[in-house]
């Protein structure tokens, strides 16, 4: 009996929308406060460093996806170019880190819309509903993401305009330059850029992937960089670095500083929509990576099923939803950002190494870009808060032990 396959239904616009929806939702309403606390007035320098590293990673992902248009992203690329262990490391870091991101996005949504004391139940409900949307099929996911992206961009335009209209809070160079703080901010802000990975992980469902994916990834990343730069300037203008660092909702506070009371609900609606968009795309991407890993027995084979009618990895997505719901019950929003960044930076380290190994016949970008991406991933990962680094190392070690034990058991059974 032939196993049902994923269907190629996504065009360029769909792929860009999914990547942009992931990046905007993950960053604009969540990351600026901890990044400002680390970098102060030099927040935009950290943003620029994160963008450079993200560009190196994006070009590596695009080059690899054109040759390996299958589900799984860097997990599949690492296996094909570097070997099974490298692929497993990438997949494990992606699934664990992005599962934490799902919880962070659900909690961010609830923080903007839930009555006091109801944040966790609302976050759990959001996870359950969006997992259901994903189970209906990938075209439903793409359509919903496009609608959310339009809403979010409109709300961000209002918030940024208010931020620039507010009285100047502090000059941008008011705080002393701290290299470690700027790198830490870049590592945290990288969390916001990681959404373009969703395009690569959906490689088995994109039409003409060799042409579409290399175009969609840099396009989505470029649009996100412009949005982040504008919003970051607006927040710093209205609140200053100290005000931004103290704020739980920097863009909403920037609107308040401008005296645009009518616009604050608009920004909150945008924040809620952005978090939902990111969560929707994250569930889709993680489900595909889990599917790819289960096909190779790096996760339980039970998760490798594809629904015969909807053409989605339904068991993997249901398992993911249950795991996210469990995390939401105990998670801390800001702590999840650093942990997720550590895992995703290691994921992209493998992608850069895999792209560096590719031959000239399939090369689209110079090797020095992969060197920049790989070195940047290592530097930003080590610059993260020590709790994130320690937690990430422990989780990676657990994953390595899991696979090593499984391989030993399989060899003994032969």
Automatic annotation (TrEMBL):
Primary localization class, coarse: membrane
Transmembrane segments: 12-33, 39-58, 89-114, 120-138, 147-170, 182-199, 219-239, 269-291, 312-331, 337-356, 368-386, 392-409
UniProtKB keywords: Cell membrane, Membrane, Transmembrane, Transmembrane helix
Localisation: Cell membrane
Membrane topology: Multi-pass membrane protein
Record-level GO cellular component terms: plasma membrane
Pfam families reported in the protein's UniProt record: AA_permease_2
UniProt name for this protein: Amino acid permease
